[in-house]
Amino acid sequence: MTHCPDVAPPTPTSRDLTLQAAVDVLGSATSVTVLCHVQPDADTVGSGLALGTALRRKGIPVQVAFAAPAELPVSMRDLPGTDLLVAATEVATEVDLLVAVDCGSAGRLGSLASRLGGARRSLVIDHHRSNTRFGTFNLVDDTAESTTAVLTQLFDVWGVPIDADLAHCLYAGLVTDTGSFRWGQAGTHTLAERLLATGIDGGAISRRLLDTHPFGWLPMLGSVLSTAVLVPDAAAGRGLVHAVIRCTDSAGLGAEEIESVIDIVRTTAEAEVAAVFKETAPQSWSVSLRSKNSVDVAAVATTLGGGGHRFAAGYTTAGPVEAVVAQLREALD
Ligand code: 5GP
Ligand code: MN
Question: What's the 80 CA to ligand 2 centre distance in angstroms?
Answer without folding.
Answer: 18
